[in-house]
Amino acid sequence: MGCTDSRNEILDEESLIKTEELNLGYSKFHCDKIDLIFKRYSLSSKMHGSQFLTACRELTLDMSLYGNPDKPLTKFYHSFKMNYKHFNQRRLSTLGVLLGQGSHKEKAKVLFKIYDIVKDNTLDESEMRIMIEDILEIALVIIPTYAYNLTQDEEKKVELGKYIKKLGSVLDTMIKYYEILFSQGQGTVITFNDFVDMFDKEEINALGNSSRIRKLSIREHGRVIAPATLVKDFILEAGKKN
């Protein structure tokens, strides 16, 4: 019974997050189109505020609540800034991959284009790490925090906060997990074809869908973090008795 309740709670929290993801508007477009539009208005992966808003208008995104620094939408998009003046086009394009349309292989191809930073048709260890960190931070931290900031119901907000805390607790673990997955049998660089082929694996093609990443992360939390916390609490309690 407890397991069923736990699963339902996760489904409730995930449902709240997915609703706000849909409301952002990226699901109307193929991820490749989103990437092309953000790139069109960027220079060296940087976008001024005016370029960012022009790209959003071309994507017909609802930006009516953007601008006021206290509004959740403003805080959300400012998480994609690389400095005070510029937005990070790579991360915005990655948001489009996570929330936009496309098959596993199509999303893999777009991700490769985004993170082949030196344009040598390979991804080296540094580029791979940047990609993994960007994807996981967007899926596990930025999007859930946005949903939290929009939630009005206090009870739901408390539960969503707990869910977000669990996701954050496995961020570093998941980064290492994906670094290991991509490095297996690939050497120090991955070619375009090898990268796309790797998206046949369920754990790796989850990187194209933010909800699936969160579900994998919660599974990892249950496998690693929660048991470790129980052991720590047990040791502390035993220490008090002694």
From TrEMBL:
- Lineage top rank: taxon: Eukaryota
For this entry, the protein name equals EF-hand domain-containing protein
